[in-house]
Design brief:
- By secondary structure, this protein is mostly beta strands.
- The protein has no helices and eleven strands.
- A hairpin with a 3-residue loop joins strand 7 and strand 8 (78-83).
C-alpha cells in the first residue's frame, strides 16, 4: 500500500527549467525524508537533494546548489524539485526515494523520470 509516483521529466534546452514532483501515499507516519537521485548513462547513481518532510529542512549536492530547490506541495504527501538553469550535465534519469522510519521502515523508490537537457 506504499506508493511513490514521480512526474515532470522531459526535454528542455540548456538554461531552461523543469519541475519534478514526487507524490507519496500509504504511509502511516509522516516522519520521513524524500531524496532525489539521478543516474546518467554510463555513470553511477548520485544523490541530488533531500527534504525532511516533518519540518521541510533540505540539503543539496554542491553541483546543484543555487539552481535546484525542493518544496512541499503537501507536507504529508508531495515534494517538488524545481530545477532552473539546467545544463546538459543534468541529463539523467531522476528517481525519488522515501526514507521511512518507524513501523514501515525502509527505502521506497519511484519508477524514475527522464530529464534531457540539450546544448
Amino acid at each position: 500500500q506504499l506508493q511513490i509516483v514521480e512526474s515532470g521529466g522531459g526535454l528542455v534546452q540548456s538554461g531552461g527549467s523543469l519541475r519534478l514532483s514526487c507524490a507519496t501515499s500509504g504511509f502511516t507516519l509522516e516522519y520521513y525524508t524524500i531524496h532525489w537521485f539521478r543516474q546518467a548513462p554510463g555513470k553511477e547513481r548520485e544523490g541530488v537533494s533531500c527534504m525532511r518532510i516533518s519540518d521541510g529542512r533540505t540539503k543539496y549536492t554542491e553541483s546543484v546548489k543555487g539552481r535546484f530547490t525542493m518544496a512541499r506541495i503537501n507536507a504529508a504527501h508531495t515534494a517538488a524539485l524545481q530545477m532552473n538553469d539546467l545544463v546538459p550535465e543534468d541529463t539523467a534519469v531522476y528517481y525519488c526515494k522515501a526514507e521511512v522510519r518507524g513501523l514501515q521502515a525502509g527505502d521506497y523508490w519511484g519508477q524514475g523520470t527522464q530529464v534531457t537537457v540539450s546544448s
